[in-house]
Amino acid sequence: MKSFERLILSHLKDITDPLLDPMQFAYRANRSIDDAVNMALNFILQHLDSPGSYARILFVDFSSAFNTIVPSLLHDKLSQLNVPDSTCRWITDFLTDRQQYVRLGKLVSDTRTTSTGSPQGCVLSPLLFSLYTNGCTAGHQSVKLLKFADDTTLIGLISDGDESAYRSEIARLVSWCSANNLELNALKTVEMTVDFRKAPAPLPPVILCDSPVTSVESFRFLGTIISQDLKREQNISSITRKAQQRMYFLRQLKKFNLPVKMLVNFYTAIIESTFTSSITVWFAAATARDKAKLQCAIHSAEKVIGCHLPSLQELHISRTRRRAPRIVADPSHPGHNLFRPHPSGKRLRSIRTRTSRHMNSFFPTAVSLLNSTPTPPS
Fold first, then answer.
1. pLDDT for 166-210, tens place per residue?
2. Which of 7, 39, 85, 94 is most buried, with most CB under 10 Å away?
């Protein structure tokens, strides 16, 4: 069954990808989690370059998101995305009258029939939810609604203290969710404010479903810790701890006299993967001290394995050079227009920044890096 689901998944992607909301980053060609985080930070940093501005970020949580899909509503949404009627009917039938039960050890519950939601662990579930929420978008230019499957983030770019558009979009989101059988979890939804103004006045809280939203100083957004000051210390400390914990297993394998090639493969898959996780998000803005901590972990691995390993700088450059051209090649990507070529076509226009925190973010860094390559993209 899962093999057939994969065929349907590939079929749906081919049909719907060009029609999906540009701010949906999950299960898209040439898109990644890094793109979603970098795009969110770019909106915020670009806006904060203007004096008297600040940003409010609402990290939305849904209650049992995949379990709330209504097949009939999904059928209509798929039809609007030009999915063939035969495929729509198959998906509707697939989600309707499903038999399920709960097993705990030798105990088995009674069988229940359900016609709402998509099965947990189903190959199609994440994409179906993305298609189901495709019409949920922001209507105001100063508010950005980013989605990665069921992870939804509303960013209000506030100028002159006018929050009317931000609060209007929140009300619009609540209304849309109510009309589409999605339940917002107000208790797990949190908000973070990024405000570098001098002596700002206290901000009125956001009310969601009659409950005030909790304000936080930092939040793990799609695997990357984002803090109010937009510094990277917390995220890098988390990465360093993971790498140091996994070094123990590398040392244990060394004691068993495994070949160098196998040790390198283990390092690449288990330890280096922690360094490269969202490295395009945090590396350029990291302090020299934080970079030295991570590089020290790499040197420790080199001593254990007995061979040279790619440095942190090399990892960042390779990931950026891999990621940026994909954005350049994708006109539907919301960051595509940030890579604007000069009339000669030989170089890209530098992104104007007024602060170092904006300059040390992904897009300005990527443009600079692509301009330094021997053969810049056309």
1. 999 999 999 999 999 999 998 999 999 999 999 888 899 999 888
2. 39
As a whole number of angstroms, the longest Cα–Cα distance in the chain is 71
- pTM value is 0.90
